[in-house]
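cron nightly-structures :: item 1 of 1
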Amino acid sequence: MMASSLRFILAAGLIASAAIFLQARGRNEIFPPRLPLQSFPTQLSNWTGTEIAIQKDVLEVLGPGDFLLRVYQNPAEKQPFVDLFIAYFPSQRTGDTIHSPKHCLPGSGWLPVESSRVTLSLPGHSPFPANRYVIAKGDSRQLVLYWYWAHDRGVASEYWAKFYLVADSMRMNRSDGALVRITTPMYSGETAEAVQQRVLPFAGDVAPLLDSYIPR
């Protein structure tokens, strides 16, 4: 109990310090050039994407940013669809920080039944940690992979993301960052590890493109 309380106090202190620091540094902030997420390719190898409109109330919760929500399908492999969500925030200095998916899932009716940290090795980038969740709604299950991405660095922990947010603001005068989330339905009896291996080729198609939309 004490350890949990200490972690909460440290996390709250870090977030408060980040907000104060970022507001103080706002006038020097740099906004590097990038492509809008709307121009992200709809064709990735054999995967074809269909745009999904994000509801207005969801956009209001997310705050100012650039967002992509797209469902990709691969008819050649006859695999379940893959849902790709990318949220990019050009600035996080006014409190518009990245929202963790684990806080949003219960509100949409999906409940996490299994969670772990995994290491992803994707083309064009050094290996990095990511979150892997199995979520359930009734008899349906889905696998969720997500990570925080900024300046060619991926982290799984939202607290480490806040730490690097402050560090990069000091070093680079930038507070931009993103969340990348990949979701796909699971077959009956399919393990989380098997689903992860199934979606890794898709993630491998996405990863080399990130630098154009989420600047290093």
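cron nightly-structures :: done
Residues 2-213 form one domain.
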